[in-house]
């Protein structure tokens, strides 16, 4: 009898352990989206609700899949790790497709295009890229005009990734051949709003961030502006990240995105938040 009871207890412990690894309590009818809701107009909080382009597109995808959307607001830098670990089904946060990120996760088809721009204070000596970089005859950057420049970014975003490379790669760091950074001029903040506040208080000389959030920050803060003209820092594609082993969900999301593009839903959502000039 004692032996039978011991076997039952052992079995229950094994089931509990398996549940911990396999997330047996997870509702298969819930689509869990990780985001960083401080990136308007893609995702932000309005009252007690998550709103924005990514939020509405994610809801449209969930509706297509017959699932309930659940949004988890986390730090941007923890999204990919959480997707890899299975804490979230997908990450959607104005996330750019990069080769480095593709080593950890798969990406859906692109659903939007982002442009990285530069925000400076009114009256700044920085009026164009020519005030930041020295260029060679081919138009490639070879040196910084000001070796003491400080650049504010939201950590782990592509603004951070791009600006953290060496000068020849349009970055702001001195990098050895082995990849060691000897001079790091990039100051990283948890949110774009924090980076903008640092700009306003002269802790950094400029902020690099996506164009649409940049517009929102400029509209909400006096004394700053986006560099105009042919001064875009980078152009990039946004997509949804999904765990590499979850190819079934990837296929379903791509199918839903394709249908939402064809029926005009995505264009309608984007135009709601980004007005045509």
Describe the structure.
- The protein is an alpha+beta fold and 277 residues long.
- It folds into two domains: 27-111 and 239-273, D-Maltodextrin-Binding Protein, domain 2 (3-Layer(aba) Sandwich), CATH 3.40.190.10; 114-236, D-Maltodextrin-Binding Protein, domain 2.
- It is built from nine helices and 18 strands.
- The chain has helices at 2-22, 53-65, 79-85, 99-102, 158-163, 192-200, 211-220, 247-262, 265-273; strands at residues 30-35, 38-39, 43-46, 49-51, 68-73, 90-91, 105-107, 112-121, 133-135, 141-144, 151-154, 173-175, 181-184, 186-189, 206-210, 224-226, 234-238, 241-243.
- The strands form five sheets. Strands 8, 11, 14, 15, 16 and 17 form a six-stranded mixed beta sheet that branches. A five-stranded mixed beta sheet has the order 5-1-6-18-7, with helices on both faces. The protein has a three-stranded antiparallel beta sheet with strand order 2-3-4.
- A hairpin with a 5-residue loop joins strand 9 and strand 10 (141-144).
- Residues 1-25 have low confidence and may be disordered.
- Span of the ends, CA to CA: 79 Å
User: What does the average pLDDT come to?
Assistant: 89
Give the C-alpha Rg.
22 Å
CATH superfamily of the largest domain: Periplasmic binding protein-like II
Question: Would you identify the regions where 5 or more consecutive residues have pLDDT less than 50?
Answer: 1-25
Task: Count the E strands.
Answer: 18
């Amino acid at each position: 009898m004692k032996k039978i009871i011991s076997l039952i207890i052992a079995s229950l412990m094994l089931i509990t352990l398996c549940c911990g690894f396999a997330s047996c309590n997870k509702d298969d009818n819930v689509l869990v989206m990780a985001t960083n809701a401080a990136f308007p107009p893609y995702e932000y909080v309005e009252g007690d609700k998550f709103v924005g382009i990514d939020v509405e597109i994610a809801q449209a995808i969930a509706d297509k899949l017959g699932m309930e959307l659940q949004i988890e607001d986390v730090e941007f830098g923890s999204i990919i790790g959480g997707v890899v670990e299975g804490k979230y089904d997908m990450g959607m946060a104005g996330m750019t497709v990069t080769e480095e990120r593709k080593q950890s996760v798969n990406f859906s088809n692109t659903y939007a295009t982002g442009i990285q721009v530069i925000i400076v204070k009114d009256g700044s000596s920085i009026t164009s890229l020519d005030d930041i970089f020295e260029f060679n005859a081919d138009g490639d950057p070879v040196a910084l005009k000001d070796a003491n420049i400080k650049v504010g970014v939201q950590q782990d975003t592509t603004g951070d990734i791009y600006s953290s490379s060496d000068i020849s790669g349009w970055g702001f760091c001195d990098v050895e051949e082995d990849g060691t950074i000897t001079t790091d001029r990039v100051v990283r903040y948890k949110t774009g709003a924090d980076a903008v506040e640092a700009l306003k208080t002269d802790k950094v000389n400029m902020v690099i961030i996506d164009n649409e959030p940049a517009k929102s920050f400029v509209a909400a803060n006096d004394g700053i502006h986006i560099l105009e003209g042919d001064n875009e820092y980078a152009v990039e594609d946004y997509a949804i990240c999904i765990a590499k082993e979850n190819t079934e969900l990837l296929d379903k999301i791509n199918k839903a995105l394709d249908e939402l593009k064809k029926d005009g839903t995505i264009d309608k959502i984007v135009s709601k938040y980004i007005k045509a000039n």
